[in-house]
């Protein structure tokens, strides 16, 4: 350590005229953002110019071109509108950003531009792309807005710019994008340590990771496109039983000759449900009910249940007594006349909400009785008892209206998926 | 072979002597015997021994366990004359390594065992067996256990395989089957376990249906993991039968004696196992096997009780068997530790090595004491029910054996891990002890629940009064609590002038008494809290069982050491040392367990345990994120 301390002034003296060389000699790398690097000195000059308006930096060539008619109206053209729907993607979006950065070293109007870009992001399908957000932040001139003294720090230094920075982070938050080290570095470079955007960043970094895995049943992103796959996923989600078996009773297909479409039928049933159905008395009907909605993020799917009514209290089966000759090794119950003490009775019913048993679930491609009847026929193969139990269809027509909406929803989702694909 | 012939001759002589011994009552010395008779006449009813059960009520029935059971000199001579040839046979004619490697006991070895009479150790002499008492059986078990495969083969044959005929068979059945089984001409197997049924009687699928003439049953089904399945000629098979009860037909379990000669019996290929590889374990299939009605053991539909009795009676011998193994291992490892030098010091001089030897010695002493105390209790006249004690012996000794053998391997270092040496075989062989004859978990439930049932019956009234808010009972409880908290001296009369414990063990006896007293209080509070739903509190029951096992182990060692001290056996001071050490350890363990069992004890982590297990089992996987995982 000591020799290093001796070396340091020596080296410093050697490379006195060239501080960059010193940095390189010590392996210190300053990361400059790509768009900003060539203008670094210039923007530095800008900051000083803000403090001392008298000393003007030498105007660049392009500025000179812009100067001749300072008072004329500037025609404003939305750079994002140049691209029509088909070619709106990440590449074109980045292109617009690049064009903006290159157009003007001073980045005049960058706040407005960033606001506009934020708005257009979903259209370009880049609203979930961290790199694009970083590129957006990169548009801000660096070090200009960093407060230099305590007075600046005390008051809201460059409030419009800070507010804009916060908005960028806000939108990231809305789409669940976690900032990374580059974001942090950019914010520090643009606004400095004690600024609102950086505070926002820190809050995001505190809460985001904590909430990231809070959902014990995460919905995969992106959702699969195939409706059969979505149906499988949703059914597994509802049944929440690792033993449950998914059966695809029918794959979607179209017959060439007759033009008859066969909708898909996907069902799920667990062994427990199977044995429940086995025990069901053939005198009581079972019901096919539905459709019931299930939301997977923005997608809504519908499922149907095969269920029975709850037995009336009088007919409830008594819990079977355990046969005393059941266990070869130890008694399964004690012959005692003592109940559990109140202090240790942890079982309590909120309201004793009981529902009838559910025997199976399914999702189908077309919501009509014929398709559902086909599902029941398929179920019969594994549950022969269904042949003896009357099956009643209690289908609600209400959700059809919602269905129409969902179709819209689905087209939207498809769009999103398509753009996703394009992006990839 | 010469040694075999000699052994055979000796056995022949011995059989003659056995008749002389038969006249003596076994298991007790004169005065103790008188005492027993007196007590029996007082009670009048067929006595059932209840030392362990009484512990649940917080009392020590010292007559049951003091003095430590002894055998007569004649019996001792007799058994010693037995031990010699058997030991010689095992040392010279049994090649355990080869048995383990080939996964087969060679026919000559089996012949040797048969000629020594080891296939009929507990079969009465009138049927051609040796007619050994439980104590003597335990003694021979010590030697037989030196080869795990042989021990299991013999145990499957006589501890469970033919036990059904022995304890519940008719005279005709005994006369027909026992002689050939005793000589080893026929080998027996016990067929209970099925692919879908371990301890659950309801899931037994093998079915016996009566034929039209009512003289036969047709047996259909498969059994798995049957020891001796491929060797056996006689099977004790448990199957469902239809029984008419109160006008309703019900399915009940019935036990049958099935000869291989009946036809339709097939055994699968021998299973490849971790340990006891030489023992023959196979599947057994029955297909329309015609079993005559006379071959029902016990009565039709009474198979459940038969199975329970067989299983309960076979366990006590494991204590002495484990002791035999570890005594042998102590010799082998001590030899190694005293010769191997490291850093110019013998291994035996290192504290950590000495620690292991102390542990092995102590555990061996305890399991030996428990095993022979239990065997002695079982040998007493009447039909003593020692199933709880036997289960405790099994649990303690199997777990100690696993621990001790593991420590022995640790002493040996890398040597113990090598297949060229016998040590790793012992480790593999002894792993099964924790599993078969009722897993230790299941037996803990049995131990705790049997005691809870006993205590519950007697305490129900009192607890009900307390729950009703009876002032008298409540005040009584309060006074008792107050006295306890003011430093109660628990005295069950083990020590002192009229005491049965030697003064040098007074401390240990006091600890036993104190533990027992508070254990009684604890059982009462558990019954108060959980009532009959205590069945579902498995974590609490496990601790109850552990405390009881410790109490019984303390009793056994104190009783044995007292006797050794009193009659001046060699190295009795060593026994005192072991006993006092074990009792102090057990005392602290018990206190800790009892603190855990008391309500709202912070040491009790049951809730966390349950929560963790549920989370993992819901996902059926380890759920924690990998330590290298990043969230941003």
Which properties best describe this structure?
heterodimer; A: 424 residues; alpha+beta; 3 domains; six-stranded mixed β-sheet; two-stranded antiparallel ribbon; 15 helices; 8 strands; 44% helix; disordered C terminus; B: 632 residues; Butyryl-CoA Dehydrogenase, subunit A, domain 2; Butyryl-CoA Dehydrogenase, subunit A, domain 3; four-stranded mixed β-sheet; four-stranded antiparallel β-sheet; 22 helices; globular; disordered N terminus
How would you characterize this protein structure?
The complex is a heterodimer of chains A (424) and B (632). By secondary structure, chain A is an alpha+beta fold. Chain A is 44% helix and 11% strand. Chain A folds into three domains: 1-52, no CATH class; 74-211; 227-312 and 355-408, no CATH class. Chain A is built from 15 helices and eight strands. Residues 6-61 and 400-424 of chain A have low confidence and may be disordered. Chain B has 632 residues and is an alpha+beta fold. Chain B has 22 helices and ten strands. In chain B, the strands form three sheets. Chain B has a four-stranded mixed sheet. In chain B, a hairpin with a 2-residue loop joins strand 9 (341-342) and strand 10 (345-346). The longest helix of chain B is centred in the C-terminal third of the chain and has 30 residues, at 538-567. The A-B interface holds A 178-180, 205, 208-209, 212-213, 242, 323, 325-341, 343-344 and B 192, 199-202, 252-253, 304-305, 307-308, 311, 438, 442-443, 445-446, 449-450, 452-453, 456-457, 460, 463-464, 467, 527-535, 599, 620, 631-632.
